[in-house]
Amino acid sequence: MPEVIFNGPAGRLEGRYQPAKQKNAPIAIVLHPHPRFGGTMNNQIVYQLFYMFVERGFTTLRFNFRGIGRSQGEFDHGAGELSDAAAALDWVQTLHPDSKQCWVAGYSFGAWIGMQLLMRRPEIEGFLSIAPQPNSYDFSFLAPCPSSGLIIHGDKDRVAPPKDVQTLVEKLKAQKGIVITQKTIEGANHFFSEHTETLLEECADYLDRRIAGELSDPRPKRLK
């Protein structure tokens, strides 16, 4: 797993990158939790998600947002971090011009950034949104949400209360042309303490089913 440094909007960004053997393999980007609360690309959930995609033949990248680890710049309350994520996707796509599909996975703060990236990039055809925080961040930009995906959270999450996540899920499920899958993990808090294995099993099961052609609208996405 090569350590990589690539150019971002506020300076160099540090990442870990695993290219797939197939030239046209799909790309996956994994986004970490809040930089101000200890979030880095080495977060255990982010690390495990990275390998989940690698094992399924994706070209995969995780990276540190600006100001974290060896990434340059300073925390920018989401706007700059979204630009970092877009730059990261650009960087991978430059190396893999034959890849036509892309997935984004984000945890907590990373889920919010990932969903915004989804709105900007029509080639993103699937997402994993882990413990999103609609009580803390505005998700109204998802109008409409352009891709099918998984929203997964714990029923004991005090950082992102289940009722707020439920409101977001119901709003998205009302939209046509996509399929939103929701999984609620019993007993899990925001950090999935003692429930990480269950979380990863659910994410892997969802990804496998999507690869098999399930859980999404059968109509092909129209690239801009």
Automatic annotation (TrEMBL):
Residues 17-132 form the Xaa-Pro dipeptidyl-peptidase-like domain. InterPro entries: AB_hydrolase_fold (IPR029058), Xaa-Pro-like_dom (IPR000383). The lineage of its organism: Bacteria, Pseudomonadati, Pseudomonadota, Alphaproteobacteria, Hyphomicrobiales. This is Xaa-Pro dipeptidyl-peptidase-like domain-containing protein. It holds the Pfam family Peptidase_S15. One of its GO terms (molecular function) is hydrolase activity.
